[in-house]
Write a structure and sequence with these properties.
- Chain A has 220 residues and is an alpha/beta fold.
- Chain A has helices at residues 38-46, 54-69, 84-88, 92-102, 194-199; strands at residues 3-8, 11-16, 21-23, 28-31, 73-76, 106-110, 124-126, 128-131, 134-137, 147-149, 154-160, 163-172, 176-178, 189-190, 205-208, 214-217.
- Chain A is built from 5 helices and 16 strands.
- In chain A, the strands form 2 sheets. In chain A, strands 8, 9, 10, 11, 12, 13, 14, 15 and 16 form a 9-stranded mixed beta sheet that branches. In chain A, strands 1-2-3-4-5-6-7 form a 7-stranded mixed beta sheet, covered by helices on one side.
- The two termini of chain A are 30 Å apart.
- The model of chain A has no long low-confidence stretch (mean pLDDT 93).
- Mean pLDDT of chain B is 85; it is low at 702-707, 782-786 and 801-817.
- In chain B, the strands form 5 sheets. A 7-stranded parallel beta sheet of chain B has the order 3-4-2-5-6-1-7, with helices on both faces. A 6-stranded parallel beta sheet of chain B has the order 8-13-12-9-11-10, sandwiched between helices. A 6-stranded mixed beta sheet of chain B has the order 25-21-22-24-23-26, with helices on one face.
- Chain B is built from 31 helices and 26 strands.
- Chain B is globular, with a radius of gyration of 28 Å.
- Chain B is an alpha/beta fold.
- Classes of the chains: A alpha/beta (220), B alpha/beta (817).
- The interface between A and B is large, with 50 and 55 residues.
């Protein structure tokens, strides 16, 4: 399994190449910012018709990570749907697919700014949830301790002898862990953006997703 | 000659000018549906295009738009407005002339739509925009003539394809519209005539007297050119001598980076402080305008420039053109030479500066071709479909349309005359539904059919379509500014632009050349590259915008034929000695055969393939061959390619080349290699923007877009995985094959050579191969290289992380912004 082990708030965690977070002791898989139904929402709003395959792609990734980790518990960290209407108008087969993945698992939908209300799916719908030392919510709060969030879609670049490599990344310091966006059609916010540099402590680190996963000081 | 009205002939007489025969002919043929005038620079071409309009409008013109003038350059439209105003006023004609470009103010545009001038000077994009408005039929009601300037340049690009589609629309609005094309000397006027005319009508071709042959030769230098490289630095003393002896010299380079370097070196040697400027497309607009103004005023002795001065305006008193580096293409050379001496019937003067030994032969080939009036030009295929998709969307923005009528209309456009109904329907389906294998957008189609006519589902989408008009895709560039000592950080002097990728590779303290000065990279602020002046004398070269032209097929063939000569009296002695030595040691490449040399050097097995297929194709060939050699266990380590040859080094020598050059094998290798290729992704992005799949990224949007936008690479990957036959991917493959990958020329080479492959095995490096060892741009064979680099870098960073956090100066990694 291509993973990267790290310790955050005295908790042993694994970063997955896909951008998911796995907590072995709780058998918990956390994914953030799936943005399901994004192409539908863009078409509805702007008339642009992007390739309508991002939901299939995102759900396939999630299916693979579930099979690989055999997680019994799942938290979707908010912005799971690109908006509530997109969540409600997913095609039948995608709804069945999600239900199949949820079957037999404890599943928490955290509300995000894109999907602030409850959806028709089962599982529990929460603003935030605390497990062990960690608190899971969508957007980082100012004075949080041991908080796991998403929302910012962090990415980082580094230059390798003239070539620039950019990948989605996890960011963490002593008090905060921010997950990369998991959805197929998501862009990123550079770790050097002031929104992130103000949020993260000077000793923050970045874990670049992809193969191989790679940990380094957060590029500022 | 009763046809020339008195007010025109009187005016010519008052200027002490003769009306040129071709200008007279244009008046005589004014009623023809389409006329193409081919004339050299300085032949009064533009005036010839306007004379029939002046005659028809006469002293008391009635209201309404009469003539549209389309130029590829905004600056040219503005220039013509000034130049045309004078004769019109002096002839006492009450003709209103306006220009309309991206720079025209909103109020002015509105006024033009309400009350159009008699003559409107504009660009292809502005015309398309005008046609996208619902009131287009009223604006263009009764327009009689359209004049397309520099049509030879337009005919080579998607801008021209778009323009011809726009004319098909215009012709439908104004059926009596007559078309005039003004062209520089081209190899195949008939192709441009077919491009111009409303199919199936034909255009008449008029040839002006081509004038005397240019005075063109290689520049004599005291030092021979180096064995490799492209800068032409060795010729600087000779170039300065020429500059001294002439009024104004244009010094053309093939790339902006080379122009920058040459300019820098020229100034280091410019002891007389001759006023010499630089002009290229990456420089700040203000800077460029200053140089242009200085040229017109005649206060510059020389201008180092690139293709940015290929077209257009009569710049002052240019009496010499110097081309540094092989011209790569005879047609461009001739057109560049035309920039010198804009006086009709006076020969233009030009000197060529080959940048290395091989280019001497290429320059000789170009001189021969110019003397024989043999211009090259690769035939362009039929009109690209992404442009058609944009046209369909623009048509929808202007109002509901009937599919049959639109098909009939677009097939009158020259580039689309062979378009099949099926191909058209696929484009229409793409515009309407996205054209996906998965039918996902039933409710949110972009175009819907109502009462038998296609229209926008949401009329508000028209604004977005208008914003995306155009086929030129800006590469992502960042502005470069001098950092202000005090005050707001953006207040420094603007210098120009660099590619985002180049900016991203800079670390504070790095130096590079821009606008002829060396600057030090300080950091990024609000999407602006902040720099300070730096006195270092060795800059890190600006690698931005390296447009690399490939040597044309004609020139490649000519070089091969020169190689076949018994001796080379026309070439400098050092070059003919070099070729003789090659003949003695190995052999010279021949037309219709493929020479491959294999020899050990530096403990490695080297293979040189003299394919003569042009830079892009040779680069692709290098990639494909090394891949195949890896499969065969020959352990290639890397390669380097030029316009003429590719050198591959590895651990084991090549014994049996034939299987490598099987067309099918190469094609398979190409398909696999193409898959994840950056060239494909970039091509896809351009196609997707032109075709209307994604929006153009404006500078503002990039600034504020943040994580809301995502890379088109993701769309490319997704489509490839789930919808590999999608129209956008089909177009992408088509485009990539023509452009940077240039597989067409590899196939041409294989067809030409077939099994006539000569493998020559030698015990040491050959004279012809030697320069290749000095070529920059070596490509290592990678495999897992990126992963290894990443692991290596991460390890290093982590071990240094303590330091990195407190001492930003010592950061080893950098982030773009």
């Amino acid at each position: 399994m291509n993973t990267h082990d790290f310790t955050f708030a005295r908790t042993k965690l694994k970063a997955l190449a896909s951008g998911a977070l796995f907590w072995p002791d709780e058998n918990l898989l956390v994914v953030s910012d799936l943005h399901l139904g994004k192409s539908e929402r863009i078409a509805r709003r702007s008339g642009q018709m992007l390739p309508p395959y991002e939901t299939i792609e995102t759900l396939s990734r999630l299916d693979e990570d579930l099979a690989m980790t055999r997680a019994a518990n799942v938290i979707c960290l908010g912005d799971s749907f690109d908006d509530l209407e997109a969540g409600q108008s997913l095609p039948e087969d995608h709804v069945l697919w999600i239900n199949r993945m949820m079957a037999g698992r404890s599943w928490v939908w955290i509300e995000g700014n894109h999907d602030p209300g409850p959806l028709e799916f089962g599982g529990s719908h929460r603003a935030e949830v605390a497990i062990g030392e960690l608190t899971f919510r969508h957007i980082a709060t100012p004075d949080a301790e041991a908080e796991v969030t998403g929302h910012y879609h962090p990415k980082a670049s580094l230059s390798l002898r003239g070539r620039v490599l950019t990948r989605a990344c996890f960011l963490y310091d002593a008090t905060r862990l921010i997950l990369p966006a998991y959805g197929a059609y998501t862009g990123g916010l550079r770790s050097s953006d002031s929104a992130l540099t103000m949020l993260m402590r000077p000793d923050a680190r970045a874990i670049l997703t992809g193969t191989p996963l790679c940990e380094l000081p957060m590029p500022r | 000659m009763a046809e020339v009205p008195e007010f025109i002939s009187d005016w010519f007489a008052s200027q002490n000018w003769q009306i040129h025969p071709h200008q007279r002919d244009m008046i005589a043929r004014a009623r023809e549906a389409a006329t193409l005038l081919v004339a050299p620079t300085g032949g009064g071409k533009t005036m010839a295009g306007f004379l029939p309009t002046l005659k028809e409008l006469g002293k008391n013109p009635s209201r309404g738009l009469h003539t549209l003038y389309i130029s590829p350059l905004k600056a040219l439209a503005a220039d013509i407005k000034r130049n045309l105003r004078r004769p019109v006023d002096e002839m006492g004609l009450g003709i209103r002339i306006d220009d309309r470009t991206g720079d025209t103010s909103q109020t002015e545009r509105k006024r033009q739509r309400v009350d159009p001038p008699h003559i409107l000077l504009t660009t292809p994009e502005s015309l398309t925009l005008l046609l996208s408005y619902e009131d287009a039929p009223r604006i263009f009601d009764g327009v009689s003539r359209v004049v397309l300037d520099e049509i030879h340049a337009l005919a080579e690009s998607k801008r021209g394809d778009q323009l011809m589609l726009a004319l098909s629309r215009l012709q439908a609005l104004a059926p009596n519209l007559r078309r005039v094309g003004l062209s520089a000397t081209v190899e195949d006027p008939q192709a441009i005539a077919d491009f111009l005319a409303a199919h199936p009508a034909k255009a008449t071709v008029l040839h002006a007297d081509p004038g005397p042959d240019p005075d063109i030769a290689m520049l004599e230098t005291s030092e021979p050119p180096p064995w490799s490289g492209g800068g032409g630095k060795y010729a600087i003393p000779a170039v300065l001598d020429q500059v001294r002896q002439h009024n104004t010299t244009l010094i053309f380079h093939n790339t902006r980076a080379q122009a920058e370097l040459f300019f820098h070196n020229l100034w280091l040697a410019n002891e007389d402080q001759l006023p010499i400027g630089i002009h290229h497309g990456s420089l700040d607009r203000g800077q460029r305008q200053k140089v242009e103004a200085a040229m017109v005023a005649g206060s510059l002795k020389a201008i180092v420039c690139t293709g940015s001065l290929d077209l257009g305006i009569d710049w002052g008193d240019v009496d010499l053109v110097i081309q540094v580096g092989a011209p790569k293409n005879v047609k461009r050379l001739i057109q560049r030479i035309g920039r010198a001496n804009h006086r009709y019937n006076a020969p233009s003067k030009a000197r060529l500066v080959p940048a290395n030994r091989f280019e001497i032969v290429e320059c000789q080939a170009a001189l021969d071709a110019a003397a024989e009036h043999q211009l090259d030009g690769e035939a362009r295929g039929s009109g690209p479909r992404d442009v058609l998709c944009q046209h369909i969307l623009v048509r929808a923005a202007s109002g509901p349309f009937d599919a049959d009528a639109l098909f009939d209309e677009v097939t009158t456009a020259g580039p689309y005359r062979d378009l099949t109904r099926q191909a058209f329907d696929e484009c229409l389906d793409f515009c309407a539904t996205g054209g996906y294998a998965l039918k996902a957008y039933d409710r949110y189609q972009r175009l819907v059919m109502r009462d038998g006519r296609w229209q926008l589902r949401d009329p508000r989408a028209a604004a977005q379509i208008r914003m995306n008009i155009g086929t030129i895709i800006d590469t992502d560039t960042l502005k470069v500014r001098l950092k202000a000592r005090r005050g707001p950080s953006n207040a420094g002097k603007p210098l120009g632009e660099v590619e985002e990728g180049f900016a991203a590779s800079l670390t504070p303290g790095d130096t590079f050349l821009i606008g002829g000065q060396i600057v030090r990279y300080e950091g990024l602020n609000e999407m602006t590259v902040q720099v300070t002046p730096n006195a270092a004398d060795k800059p890190k070269i600006a690698t931005f915008m390296g447009t690399k032209f490939a040597t044309s097929t004609q020139l490649s063939d000519r070089i091969l034929r020169i190689f076949q000569q018994e001796s080379w009296p026309d070439l400098p002695k050092h070059t003919s000695d070099w070729l003789s030595l090659q003949r003695k040691r190995s052999q010279l490449p021949e037309p219709g055969r493929l020479l491959i040399e294999s020899f050990p050097h530096d403990g490695r097995a080297n293979t040189v393939i003299y394919g003569f297929a042009g830079r892009n194709a040779m680069q692709t060939l290098g990639l494909l061959l090394t891949k195949r050699m890896e499969e065969q266990g020959l352990d290639p380590l890397g390669f380097v390619s030029t316009d003429y040859a590719v050198l591959i080094w590895g651990l084991r020598p090549l014994i049996d080349p034939a299987p490598l050059f099987q067309r099918d094998n190469l094609r398979d290798a190409l398909q696999t290699w193409l898959a994840g290729n950056a060239v494909m992704k970039r091509t896809f992005r351009n196609t997707a923007i032109i075709g209307g799949l994604i929006d153009r990224m404006t500078r503002g949007a990039r600034k504020t877009g943040r994580q809301a936008t995502f890379s088109s690479d993701i769309l490319y990957d997704t489509l490839r995985k789930y919808d590999p036959d999608h129209l956008m991917l089909e177009i992408t493959r088509e485009e990539a094959m023509k452009g940077l990958i240039d597989f067409g020329r590899i196939e041409e080479m294989i067809d030409r050579v077939q099994d006539r492959i000569d493998l020559v095995t030698l015990d040491r490096v050959t004279p012809l191969a030697a320069p290749l060892f000095l070529e920059p741009g070596r490509v290592p064979i990678k495999g897992q290289a990126e992963q290894r680099l990443l692991e290596e870098a991460a390890e290093q960073l982590l071990s240094e992380s303590g330091l990195n956090q407190i001492e930003p100066q010592q950061r080893r990694w950098s982030v773009p912004y």
